[in-house]
Amino acid sequence: MKILSIETSCDDTAITILEVKKNTYIGKKTIPTSFEVLANSTNSQIKIHREFGGVFPMMAKREHIKNLPLLLEQVLEKITNYKLEIRRKKINKKKPVDLIAVTYGPGLEPSLWTGIVFAKELAKKWSIPIMPVNHMEGHILSPFGKSKEKFIIPNIKTPILSLLVSGGHTELILSKKWMQYKIIGETLDDAAGEAYDKVARMMDLPYPGGPIISKLAEEARKKEKQSLRGVSQDDGPRGSAPLASGDSDPEKISFSFSLASKIKLPRPMIYSKNFDFSFSGLKTAVLYLIRDLKKENPNIFKDEKIKQAIALEFENAVVETLIYKTKKAKEKYKIKTIIVAGGVSSNKHLQREMKKAMGKDTEVLFPEKELTGDNSIMIGIAGYLQFIKKNKKVPKISSIKAKGNLRLR
Ligand code: AMP
Ligand code: ZN
Asked: Is 335 found in the same domain as 233?
């Protein structure tokens, strides 16, 4: 069976063709399903949206409309002799795939509609069913996918806790059973990725800010480690250590002990009793910090060390908060498997610290780098698994609609 999956919920247009190699039975027993990625084409709009400092919805819609037919041609060419068949007008007669999976929410409604309308046209032309997919379920299943090789959906130990961290969402989702979802915590304001992007903008860095801030923070961490190696064990606590002798560079030491120790940002909602998050206060704290630092030096962003120090403390605040809440939920619900997915899950510091904090009794899964952000491989996986779970029952094509605020349940 072949599935064509379409993703247009935000600023990435993506189409995949997956082949299912083995059937799955969901119920008492789950037989591992194996997939092969036959073709995968993506078009990212990052460069277009960069000048607006974020995603501009009507521009995203226009780009999806432009990209979808081109990507379709690319993927079909990989599995059929598409161009030749078009010339011979054969393509309308036979269906190249058996099922279409398309994201119907959450996301930007104008963008979602472009994918849905495109999917409906193809489904009618080829007389095949459509399975609408919740984008967030796609992210939860993304750690099982591979962008290039064949892959298997293994049996996963439940309960599962998923931390979804992206530009639009920060959610903790409990799955007491496989493919059953309950949101137990979410952000009350900004998403984690959005906070990264907004802080980057305050620091005059381009969109998307997450990868740049995290690179600056990693550089600061490296310098901090190097400088600590140059300080003996009993030199006292961070912030009061005298300069060490030996191989260390005094500049690196002054970086970590004077500047970084001056910067302290809040760990938001850490004392709240629920599993909700809030990142807008942290963002405002960065704004005030920058304002205060600028009083001493109006050109702070010409100084790489200052940028690194702010990025380090900001990233530490975000990652510590995410891990603290995840750990609390893990203990409460006796979680066996933790999934971290969404664009922010590609953050190296989050990956290292999450694995360390969750201990050996819990499996912690992250997607491969290519599948952390929005992609259509995860939509194909979710679409097929839902198709099987629902005993191959699909909604009427005319009833499929975009749902910008769709929630997992
Ligand atoms: P998504 O919404 O899933 O497409 O993910 C995009 C979001 O992830 C944007 O807000 C990015 O800034 C953020 N992001 C991407 N890479 C990283 C990273 N390494 N660290 C933190 N945030 C990141
Ligand atoms: Zn997403």
From this structure: yes
CA distances from 164 to 58, 121, 384 (A): 26, 32, 21
Asked if residue 70 is part of any domain, the answer here is yes
C-alpha triplet 334, 339, 345: angle, nearest 5°: 135
- Residue 168 labeled ligand binder: yes
For residue 327, the SS3 value is helix
The answer to whether 54 is annotated as binding is no
Q: Which ligand is nearest to the CA of 212?
A: 1
Buried b (16+ CB within 10 A) or exposed e, 376-391: bbbbbbbbbbbbbbee
Question: 339 with 390, same domain?
Answer: no
Is 337 within the bounds of a domain? yes
* Ligand 1 midpoint to CA 187 (Å): 16
Residue 162 lies in a domain: no
Looking at the CA of 7, name the nearest ligand: 2
Burial class of residue 158, CB neighbours in 10 A (0-12, 13-18, 19+): middle
Strand order in the sheet with 12-20: 130-134, 99-105, 2-7, 12-20, 33-44, 151-153
The answer as to whether 191 is a domain residue is yes
CA of 342 to the centre of ligand 2 (A): 6
Same domain, residue pair 346 and 386: no
Mean pLDDT lowest for which of 91-105, 181-195, 252-266, 311-325? 252-266
- Residue 242 is predicted with a pLDDT of 32
Protein residue closest via CA to atom 5 of ligand 1: 343
Nearest CA to ligand 1 atom 12: 210
Tell me the best of 45, 344, 349, 371 to mutate to test the pocket of ligand 1, counting ligand atoms within 8 Å of each CB and taking the most. Answer: 344
Domain span including residue 305: 182-365
Residue 102 Cα to ligand 2 midpoint, Å, equals: 14
Say how many domains are in the chain.
Answer: 2
Question: What lines the ligand 1 site, CB under 6 Å?
Answer: 166-168, 193-194, 196-197, 208-211, 214, 342-344, 346-347, 373-374
CATH assignment at residue 108: 3.30.420.40
Same domain, 224 and 310: yes
Answer yes or no: do 142 and 253 share one domain: no
Q: What is the pLDDT of residues 49-104, one digit of tens each?
A: 676 666 777 888 899 999 999 999 999 999 877 666 666 666 556 799 999 999 99
Question: Is 359 in the same domain as 389?
Answer: no
Same domain, 130 and 227: no
Read off the pLDDT of each residue in 325-341 and give the average, rounded to a whole number. Answer: 98
pLDDT digits (tens, 9 = 90+) for 231-282: 544 443 333 333 333 334 444 444 444 566 678 999 988 889 999 999 999 9
